[in-house]
Structure formats: structure tokens, C-alpha cells
Amino acid sequence: MFADRVLSGMRPTGSLHLGHYHGVLKNWVQMQHQYECLFFVADWHALTTHYDTPQIIEQNVWDMVIDWLAAGVDPAQATLFIQSRVPEHAELHLLLSMITPLGWLERVPTYKDQQEKLSEKDLSTYGFLGYPLLQSADILIYRATQVPVGEDQVPHIEFTREIARRFNHIYGREPGFEEKAEAAIKKLGGKKAKLYVELRTRFQEQGDDAALESAKALLDEQQSLSLGDRERLFGYLEGGGKMILSEPQAMLTVASRMPGLDGNKMSKSYGNTISLREDEAEVGKKIKTMPTDPARIRRTDAGDPDKCPVWQLHQVYSSDAIKQWVQQGCRSAGIGCIECKQPVITAVLEEQKPMRERAQLYLDDPSLVRNIIADGCEKARKLASETMRDVREAMGLGYN
């Protein structure tokens, strides 16, 4: 019913590191060529945990957007925008809060988990409790069909689906819905109308999922139907009302655990990161001073790559031939640790080179970034306004 549309966002935490690149941005770059993509800066979400230090957010926003562009996210292929510049997010969040049971928010798995992890902050606020609903509004305002997430975020998408389902159930029953749906069926034409009715009956009476999918495919092919009639017929299929909000699917992304300089997952909180656009000399220095197998005290001591953080980076960056060279050389003490690190340094710098070049364009002329975001916000707001028009009308707030 709804066009395939991907939505993903990031909190503005400042300059990004290679963990962000391998874990998220590489997926974004690939997806932008396959789907209609919207990527946004979740600055309101940043306030849920940094409400007392808002002054750090603005610069973080622009640093992060430059990193997106440096990584290869293309504003000609995807829409880039800032959450707070599209106030419809807040409006939908407010309206959805009117129908969201409190217990649904309290049972979101990450709620108590984050409170424990950030125990030094006072997170007994509605903003923190309600952030999953704001996240749902971010998705539903664009009627996104796919949301790329890791496994730990799947419950958030299911929560969003429940919210959309509840909204459609409460507000999708427009006056005279069945009569309007029956009239829309006739517009399909004789043969297709008969097929639609047969498939709907098979699904509703026998629970035939294949019949449901066939009916949806039939509707997808109908170009002459108005949007309103399409929504009615999709809703009528499953015995519900008019489909106003989409039910997004979680798009599970390949888990990519980018190792940090100490062997732990790369994270700012561990202080073990390499930034996307880090100075070349600093990259070399960081990798050269990485800890290695503690058993290799002297150059002549044999080592075990499995106990060395540098080996984890070889697994990300090195060819099979180099990895074999490392295994043999380390275990026989045929190579020293500095020699072992050099191919990693070369590979990281090679990966970063086009990023630095792309970023320099925007660093030299910051107005380019501002213009990209302004255009993206305009496009995003147009889509958001279309959804809010239907939401307001369904809730009796249209006042035409």
C-alpha cells in the first residue's frame, strides 16, 4: 500500500568514528541506491539524556552531517534533514501520546536498561519515558516501510507497529467505511473486483495468508485508484478500517563489531576510537601504540595473534595473504609488532582518504552543508505534512 521507504536517524554525538562507519554508514550508502531513503539528525532525542547541556548539540549536528557526507551519503540519492526542523514530528508525538497506554512505554526493554547505564543522570522525566513514542512518530510521520536496526532495536519497531495498529483501529473507522469500501471494489472492474472479493473471503474465513498477499499485490497494481480508496481496500482486506499509518518492518542490518584500539568494541566511552577524518599522523601514532600480545616482551618472543587487539583490525582490513603473513610471522617471531601494524595503518588511511577529500569541500564552504539540510528539511516536511493532514482529519481535527 505504501511505497517502500527507509528511515534511519542518529543522535548528534559529534564527530563519528570508524565504528559508526562500519556499523551504520556503509549500510546507508548501499541502501540509498536501492530505496527511497530519509536519514535524519535526531537532535530532540539528544535532549532526552543531555537536556542539561544543550550547548554541545548544535556543533555536534554539523560535525555529524559532514561525516555522513564524507562517508558517501549522497544528498542527490537520499533526503538528509534535522528532526527539530520538522515540527510535525512533535505534533504526531503529542497526538499519539493521547492513545498510548503508559504500560507500553514502561515495558520497552531499553527503558530500565538505559536508566541503569546512565545512573549518574536524573532520567525520571517524561521525555526519557516517552522517547520510544517520539521514535515511533519519527517513523510513522513518513509512513516508512523499512527501518534498519540491530537486533536490540527490534522491540522498538514492534512497539511502533503496535502504535500504528492501535491508531488505525481507533481512527480508521470513518463514517460509512464499509459502504465506501464496497464502492471502491466496484471501481476495480468486473474481473478484478470478483478476484478481490474471493481473496478477501479466503483470508477472512480460512486465514489464507497467501490469499492476503495476492490481494495486496492486486491492489498495488491498480494505478487508477485514488489514495483514499486504496487505503480503504487495504484496510477492508483484514477486516479493519482505513489504513492511515503504515506498520513498518525492521530491516535487520548485518552486525558489525568494529574493534577499538584496545580490543573492545570501538566506542567513545572506552576512549578507543579512530575518527572518520582523524589526522593521518594521529592515526599512525594511535595504531603504533596499540597494546599487543602481552607475552611478546622482546622482539624475539613468539606471539599469539588471537590474544592481540591488532589482529582484530587485520580481520577487518587485511587480505587473506596479509593475515596469513601475520599468523606465521607473529607465531614464529619472524616479524615484530611494529611491522605487523603497518598494513593496518596503510589500510585505515586508504579508507579515510576519500572521506577527507569529500569532507574538505564542506569544511571550506559550510554553506553547502546548510543548503543540503535546508533542502532536505523542505522535502521531509512536505511528506510529514501529507501524513499529518490525514491524521488530523481522522482524529476530527481537520476543521476544513
UniProtKB/TrEMBL annotation:
Motif ('HIGH' region): 12-20
Superkingdom per UniProt: Bacteria
Keywords: Aminoacyl-tRNA synthetase, ATP-binding, Cytoplasm, Ligase, Nucleotide-binding, Protein biosynthesis
Binding-site positions, ATP: 11-13, 19-20, 150-152, 265-269
'KMSKS' region (motif): residue ranges: 265-269
Single biological process term from Gene Ontology: tryptophanyl-tRNA aminoacylation
Compartment(s) of residence: Cytoplasm
GO molecular function list: ATP binding; tryptophan-tRNA ligase activity
Catalytic activity entry: tRNA(Trp) + L-tryptophan + ATP = L-tryptophyl-tRNA(Trp) + AMP + diphosphate + H(+)
CDD domains membership: TrpRS_core (cd00806)
EC number annotated for this UniProt entry: 6.1.1.2
Residues annotated for L-tryptophan binding in this entry: 138
Enzyme class: ligase
Gene3D superfamilies: HUPs, Tyrosyl-Transfer RNA Synthetase
Coiled coil: none
Keyword Cytoplasm set for record: yes
GO CC field: cytosol
InterPro entries reported for this sequence: aa-tRNA-synth_I_CS, aa-tRNA-synth_Ic, Rossmann-like_a/b/a_fold, Trp-tRNA-ligase, Trp-tRNA-ligase_bac-type, Trp-tRNA_synthetase
Role, per record: Catalyzes the attachment of tryptophan to tRNA(Trp).
Complex formation: Homodimer.
The family this protein is said to belong to: Belongs to the class-I aminoacyl-tRNA synthetase family.
Name of this protein: Tryptophan--tRNA ligase
UniProt organism field: Sideroxydans lithotrophicus (strain ES-1)
Chain's gene name: trpS
